[in-house]
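Retry 2 of 3 after timeout on previous attempt. Resubmitting structure tokens to design endpoint.
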């Protein structure tokens, strides 16, 4: 049981969360910004009214030896006539004396600037009797620009401004309460339609037959899903190749084992017949032994070919000494070569010097060398009078980028027209009577391909009656300081 098992997430829900969460978080920010903008918009017309009243009062300040201010009663009533807000005003003389208006009206925090001659109206937020007000004020110079300035202030409470700002907020925000759910619904529908191709792809895969390994059509899926479909097609292709390899292995095994098994049964029947002599029984047992050895060899080669052709697993690699591997194969093959009067030898550097290193799977490389040597032993004619010669050779190249493995024999060689065909499973050159299943060289080709090595066949001794065959496998060198792999 997994303690920290991760909950499976929905792609639909994930995208929906990332789309709606910012929208819902920005909505309160939009409310605050709209409120600030509405306050500014609502203040503008009322500020212009305050400015007009302040300018009108400033024109009533008279120029004389002493400053005077006369406000008709009707004008005062009109100034204070407001059904919503309370209006305050104050007129102070050049010496700070109260000429008219409210005595407790708060003065501005900044005095008039020196040398100022313009009667510019200024605004500020203030409070009177603990109530917030908006104030328009200006300095008046009734006795000339160099004389002390009189102060005219007009203020009102913020009732009308708040009402207008609230109306603006309602006009802007109330439609959003309808638009926001509608936007969420449209996002939901658009997202559901956007991921519909995924559901269609899932349905197409679900309806496939188990043996249908054909690639999926990536032309009818969105561009974002195309890499996924391409990966699935690559997986289907590799799975199809793996299944084909298994089927070919079973067919090849059945085909190749049929003959030795039939021979075993025939020899067993001959041994069991009535009246068989001891010599005949011994001969039958010898045939049974040879047939079983042939069947075992065939099975081993089929397994080696299946392992070499396998593409489903990653082959672990390491630094391999070709000299050591080649010497092991030569030593293992010496008894068979001596039985056939074949001179089997090795040429190249000594083991342990590190001059012929390559990166690969040591077991597979050893299988490659073994099949090349076995092939040479099987196809090299030999007798005590005229012994055949086979040489396994390892050649480190001077540029230190490659190391060559060569197996040379003194047999009849391989015709140029057949040098491509001999790498096909079960193909055997015409006119040869050597015992074999035709799987050795295909195994060599598969292993060489897996290691990025180049395999070639040439004549060992051109222009001779028996030119022999020279197999060359070019591996990339893994010596320290060697160049990049070819």
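Retry 2 succeeded. Sequence:
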């Amino acid at each position: 049981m997994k303690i920290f098992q991760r909950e499976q997430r929905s792609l639909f829900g994930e995208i929906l969360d990332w789309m709606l969460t910012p929208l819902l978080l920005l909505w309160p920010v939009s409310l605050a910004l709209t409120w600030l903008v509405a306050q500014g918009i609502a203040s503008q017309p009322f500020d212009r009214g305050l400015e007009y009243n302040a300018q009108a009062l400033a024109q009533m300040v008279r120029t004389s030896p002493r400053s005077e201010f006369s406000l008709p009663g009707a004008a005062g009533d009109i100034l204070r006539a407001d059904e919503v807000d309370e209006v305050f005003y104050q007129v102070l003389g050049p010496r700070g004396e109260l000429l008219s208006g409210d005595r407790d009206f708060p003065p501005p925090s900044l005095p008039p600037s020196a040398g100022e001659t313009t009667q510019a109206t200024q605004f500020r937020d203030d409070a009177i009797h603990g109530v917030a007000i908006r104030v328009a004020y200006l300095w008046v110079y009734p006795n000339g620009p160099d004389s002390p300035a009189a102060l005219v202030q007009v203020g009102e409470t913020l009732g009308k401004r708040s009402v207008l700002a609230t109306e603006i907020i309602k006009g802007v925000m109330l439609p959003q309460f309808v638009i926001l759910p509608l936007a969420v619904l449209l996002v939901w529908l658009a997202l559901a339609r956007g991921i519909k191709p995924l559901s269609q792809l899932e349905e197409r895969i679900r309806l496939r037959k188990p043996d249908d390994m054909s690639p999926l059509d990536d032309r009818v899926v969105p561009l974002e899903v195309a890499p996924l479909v391409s990966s699935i097609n690559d997986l289907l292709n590799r799975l199809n190749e793996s299944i084909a390899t298994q089927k070919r292995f079973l067919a090849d095994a059945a085909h190749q084992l049929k003959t030795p098994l039939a021979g075993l049964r025939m020899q067993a029947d001959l041994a069991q017949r009535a009246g068989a002599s001891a010599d005949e029984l011994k001969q039958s047992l010898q045939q049974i032994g040879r047939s079983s050895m042939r069947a075992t060899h065939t099975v081993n080669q089929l397994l080696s070919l299946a392992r070499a052709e396998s593409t489903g697993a990653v082959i672990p690699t390491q630094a391999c000494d070709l000299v050591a591997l080649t010497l092991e194969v030569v030593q293992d093959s010496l008894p068979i070569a001596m039985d056939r009067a074949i001179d089997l030898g090795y040429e190249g550097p000594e083991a342990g010097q590190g001059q012929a290193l390559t990166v690969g799977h040591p077991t597979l490389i050893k299988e490659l060398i073994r099949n090349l040597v076995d092939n040479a032993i099987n196809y090299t004619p030999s007798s005590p009078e005229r012994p055949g010669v086979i040489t396994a050779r390892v050649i480190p190249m001077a540029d230190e980028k490659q190391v060559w493995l060569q197996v040379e024999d003194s047999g009849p060689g391989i015709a140029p027209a057949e040098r491509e065909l001999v790498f096909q499973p079960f193909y055997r050159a015409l006119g040869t009577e050597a015992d074999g299943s035709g799987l050795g060289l295909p195994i060599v080709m598969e292993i060489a391909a897996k290691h990025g090595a180049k395999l070639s066949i040439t004549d060992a001794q051109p222009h001779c009656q028996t030119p022999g065959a020279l197999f060359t496998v070019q591996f990339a060198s893994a010596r320290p300081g060697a160049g990049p792999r070819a």
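Attempt log closed. The longest strand covers residues 131-140.
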